[in-house]
What does this fold into?
Amino acid sequence: MSTKQFPKDFLWGGAIAANQAEGAWNVGGKGPSIADVCRGGIISGVADKEIDPNLFYPSHDAIDFYHRYKEDVEMFAEMGFSLFRTSIAWSRIFPKGDELEPNEEGLQFYDNLFDELLKNNIKPMVTISHYETPLHLATEYGGWENEKLIEFFSRFCEVIFTRYKDKVKYWMTFNEINNMHKIPFATGAARIEEGPDKLQRVYQASHNLFVANAHAVRLGKEIMPENQVGCMLSLSAFYPNTCHPDDVFEAYEFRRKSLFFSDVMLRGEYPAFSKRIFEEANITLDIRSGELDLIREHTCAFLAFSYYLSTTYKAGMPVYATTGGARGIDNPYLEKSSYGWAIDAKGLRYVCNELYDRYQKPLFIVENGFGDVDEISPDGKIHDQYRIDYVKKHLIELQEAITDGCEVLGYAYWGPIDIVSAGSGEMRKRYGFIYVDRDNEGNGTSNRMKKDSFYWYKNVISTNGAALFEEE
Ligand code: BG6
It folds into this structure.
């Protein structure tokens, strides 16, 4: 391979999550999920105890992908996608989460969607749980703090692996599992507030997730040995603010608290540094018999991650969380989007190398993208050169990472069609190559329109990335 190429079988495409796109929140037997009680975003908004019919919940209609997926898949195919990542809404299959029998209508929907993708030569990739645990499991069981969820999740996996094993090759267990620290409600359906027992609760819920992850890998090997089950983390880049050794070491320690999750799921054991964390925070995990063996024996096949930005860390500072990754302080060398997300393409190369050096397992970029406000120009079109610039720079650096020796299976752009923002619940923050006529309050036709970036990405894919390196 010459230095400026992507591998021949590199997968190009896009990624969404069911709760941010499908809508039809109570159609076809679907039960409510934790996303369905959130207003203003599942990350920073209000999570009601139950749905108030007088209030507006963005996920209830989203962009109506549930009914319009054929039209959307056609446009993904026109762009030349070979990969499309979505999640299976758990509460479409098990409306409350703890039933013994699945909801056939929900299963049929994903059969139809996957068939439509395959007909268009697009490989479906599935996130099994993407911030959308059935609400009942949160309210009645306390979410992933309760070990019972392991059984419910395993049943869900067994059903969908059996049903879709011939249609879906790539699977991921929990979206951005390392966000258990920052956003435990979204990640673990657990309402864990700040307090002296926070870490104990976060790590116990994480342990339950690790056991569930290992069961998913085990079931995957049994039911569909040809397919792969990976893990998925939020891994935007994290730098020390200065070369002061305290900044350097504390940034390293902070990063390790994220890599802790991939360490367990890829290496099969709790990393050595976790012993000290647990001791100092008085954490005692309830580890049931056989669980550590299970985790050791069933590790993930690949590491998928989201990458949006980088941030810098100064010793002792509090780090706040949004989607996109942990946020410390501004890096003076980088520009930001209007949402304050630092644009750092080289950070993607850095992270790929960091992760491949650590694990030597295939990597998958399953989220990267530019979310901002789009204006319709007087000619009726959207000229989103800023999005093209962002993706171009990131893909060029991704190619560099591949040349560095990182094994990268594919690139799924986040939000190839405008969807509801997970962070803020807005439609106004748009990532799409395809525009959706819908505003924050749910007004609009929901009609789709191609932006300039649509044609640009299509050209990149059709040349397997070569167009990125052509002189303008
Ligand atoms: C990731 C999530 O953290 O960031 C997605 O997995 C989310 O669900 C994406 O949409 C972008 O964040 P936001 O807040 O801009 O939607």
